[in-house]
Design a protein that fits this description.
By secondary structure, this protein is mainly β. Helix content is 3%, strand content 37%. The longest helix has 6 residues.
C-alpha cells in the first residue's frame, strides 16, 4: 500500500557507523552484508537477524521497523529466489521512506480524517495520506527501533514500547512481535500487546512479495486467490466508504486463481479507478480460523507459491501501483510500478470510526493477539 510521508523524516534519525566494506563472512545467503545493518538510529542499535531451517530457507529481518529484508526460498528448479523487495542497508531504509517489509502500527491502513473517538474522548492523529492517517502516522512502528532477542536460529523476538500520546494514540502500549521459521518453509508472525489506557490497535506486516524473485518484472502474470466473498470499497482518497459489497460479478472477484494483470487496468470499474489498481481490503471467509487459507499468490514462472493464513478478519491486497522507478532496492534494482504484491492481514480500514465492523479497541487488562503465517511451497 502506498504511503505519503513527510520528506523531512530523515531529519528525525541519526545514523552512524554503517560500513560499506564488504566482508564475505558477513554476507547472508541472500547476499546481504550484515555490517550495513549494524549501526544506530536515534541512539538505539540496529542489526540484521538471520533465521534458517534445514530446508535451506533463509529469512533476514532487521529490528529497524521490524522489517523483513529478504526471504530466500527454492523455485521449481531448485534455484533459490529472494521473494521480497527491500534495501541493502539501514541507511536506505532511513533515507527512503517506505514500508518495505515493515511491522505496521499502531494502526495499519487508514483512519479517516486523522481522528477517532473512544469512550467519549476525541483523538487527533497526524494526517499523512490524502487527509487521513495511514499506517500509524508519519512516525509509525516502521520507523522505530525494536529491542531484539534471538533465542533460537529459527526465532526472533522484537519488543517496543509506544508511549502514551505517540502519534496521537492513547495509552502506553507494550508490543511484542515474534517471527518463527518452521521446517516446512512457513514464516509465522505472532503479535501481542497490552495497554494502560483504552486504545486502538491493528498490527500487520507490509512485505512486498515478488514470487518471481526478480524485481525487474511486474505482477501481471502472477495468480492470486483470495478467500473472500466481500470487500470494502473506497472513495477517491482511498478511504473505506463504510459499505461491504459482494465481489461476485466484479473485478474484485479472486475466489478462483486469477492473473493480477487481467483486470487491473479496467478503470471503467470505479473501484479500480479509485485505487489506481488494486489497493483494497477483502472480508475473509475464514472467520479467524488460521487453519484455513486466506490468500494464495503464485508465480507460473518459478512455481513458487505463497499461502497466507491469519486470525484477522481482513486482508489488504495492494498491487504496488505507486512504485514509480524512483527507488533503487537490493542489488541496485530499480523498482518499477507493480513489481510486487502486498498481502496485509488486518482489521478493516477505519474500523475505529465504523462501529459495526470488528472492533480494534484494546483495554487495560486485555491482551491483543494476532497471528499470520506466510507459507512457501513449489508447484512443479
Amino acid at each position: 500500500m502506498k504511503k505519503t510521508v513527510l520528506a523531512a523524516l530523515t531529519a528525525l534519525f541519526i545514523v552512524t557507523g554503517c560500513s560499506e566494506k564488504k566482508s564475505v563472512g558477513q554476507l547472508t545467503e541472500s547476499g546481504l552484508n550484515k555490517k550495513n545493518f549494524e549501526t544506530e538510529v536515534n541512539g538505539k542499535k540496529t542489526d540484521l537477524y538471520v533465521l534458517t531451517n534445514a530446508n535451506g530457507m533463509e529469512v533476514c529481518i532487521t529490528n529497524f521497523g521490524g522489517r523483513v529484508v529478504s526471504i530466500l526460498v527454492p523455485d521449481k528448479d531448485g534455484n533459490k529466489k529472494d521473494v521480497v523487495l527491500g534495501f541493502d542497508s539501514i541507511q536506505d531504509y532511513v533515507n527512503v521512506p517506505s514500508d518495505f517489509g515493515a511491522a505496521i502500527g499502531r494502526y495499519a491502513n487508514r483512519i479517516g480524517n486523522g481522528t477517532f473517538a473512544l469512550d467519549g474522548v476525541k483523538y487527533n492523529l497526524p494526517k499523512n495520506n490524502y487527509g487521513h492517517t495511514l499506517h500509524g502516522g508519519p512516525n509509525g512502528f516502521q520507523y522505530m527501533v525494536f529491542d531484539a532477542q534471538q533465542p533460537d536460529p529459527k526465532i526472533l523476538e522484537l519488543t517496543y514500547l509506544s508511549k502514551d500520546g505517540e502519534e496521537g494514540f492513547p495509552g502506553n502500549l507494550t508490543s511484542k512481535i515474534t517471527y518463527i521459521l518452521s521446517e516446512d518453509n512457513a514464516l509465522q508472525i505472532k503479535y501481542e500487546a497490552e495497554t494502560d489506557k483504552p486504545t486502538v490497535i491493528n498490527l500487520t506486516n507490509h512485505s512486498y512479495f515478488n514470487p518471481d524473485g526478480d524485481g525487474n518484472v511486474t505482477n501481471s502474470d502472477w495468480l492470486l486467490t483470495i478467500n473472500g466473498d466481500k470487500y470494502t470499497p473506497v472513495d477517491s482518497t482511498f478511504m473505506t466508504t463504510g459499505e461491504i459489497l459482494a465481489v461476485e460479478g466484479t473485478d474484485m472477484d479472486f475466489r478462483k486463481p486469477t492473473s493480477i494483470g487481467s483486470r487491473i487496468d479496467n478503470y471503467a470499474f470505479e473501484q479500480l479507478k479509485n485505487g489506481k489498481g488494486y489497493d483494497h481490503n477483502w472480508v475473509l471467509n475464514t472467520n479467524g480460523d488460521i487453519s484455513q487459507i486466506a490468500a494464495t499468490l503464485e508465480s507460473p514462472k518459478t512455481g513458487i507459491v505463497l499461502d497466507v493464513y491469519t486470525t484477522e478478519p481482513g486482508i489488504q491486497f495492494y498491487a504496488g501501483n505507486f512504485l514509480d522507478g524512483t527507488v533503487k532496492g537490493k542489488k541496485g534494482i530499480v523498482y518499477q510500478a507493480r513489481t510486487a504484491a502486498c498481502l496485509e492481514t488486518q482489521k478493516y480500514p477505519d474500523t475505529p470510526n465504523k462501529q459495526d465492523w470488528p472492533s480494534a479497541v484494546l483495554r487495560p487488562g486485555e491482551k491483543y493477539t494476532s497471528e499470520t503465517i506466510f507459507k512457501f511451497s513449489v508447484k512443479k
